[in-house]
Amino acid sequence: MAVHAHPDDESSKGAATMARYVDEGVDVLVVTCTGGERGSILNPALQHRKDIEDNISDIRRAEMDRARAVLGVRQHWLGFVDSGLPEGDPLPPLPEGCFALVPLEEAVERLVREIREFRPHVMTTYDEYGGYPHPDHIRTHEISVAAFEAAADPDRFPDSGEPWQVLKLYYDVGFSMERTQTLHAALLAKGLESPFEEWFEKREEWFNKRRRPDLTTRVPVADWFERRDAALLAHATQVDPNGWFFSIPLDLQREVWPTEDFELARSLVDSSIPEDDLFAGVRDPVQA
Fold this sequence. Notes:
Elements: E1 2-4, H1 9-12, H2 15-23, E2 29-34, H3 50-53, H4 56-71, E3 74-80, H5 104-118, E4 122-125, H6 135-150, E5 168-172, H7 177-189, H8 196-209, E6 217-220, H9 225-234, H10 250-256, E7 259-267
Parallel strand pairs: 1-2, 2-3, 4-5
Antiparallel strand pairs: 5-7, 6-7
């Protein structure tokens, strides 16, 4: 089970890993906390179109349907409303009724229902910083960690299904500083333009403030990079097909960083760090 804040997050974070496991016969469920109703239209070709702006919720659901089909995953909506990304100094208040302001227990209970119904062995979500400081990403982290613990407790939410113990919880690391610096150096070494000069300038302060993730688990997924990119392109309003994300040659990515990376946050099974499989220790029989 991969728990994400908005439609498109599943395709930019861990998508190749999900596609690989689907192809190996694993049942994969994406839980999307919000509908992405307040997301900006980031594709220059689709900006300033009233037909899109007026129907963004329906459009993003349709985009999610296409991405889900590309990846081969199942997907459920948790049913909360996008909080938007507040900007300004000081930051404006979050909109009433948005996901980040919903009482924590209410949001945790909905995710516990999903866990108890789907009964996953492994969960992925974001770290305490949300991957980046969007209020919905931080809230997704909070409810994921709380639901991981609560789903197994028969005294918590007793009317929300039979208790189920998830065995491992991971944080999706995504574009770590290590990965970014490696790709940047490889592009320059081949005489190619790197999109990361500006990226470093914008994010260096943020990286310096946060705890550096521990890359405990690197899943080899080079053969699934095309599926990852195709899923992300399915979210047409949310990505620029000519943008930096797609400017790094796939052959170079396969050569210098052929994995998607995770941090093991909770585990009830024995596995040796570093890992190359989210199911390390789970595939072996365990004592109840």
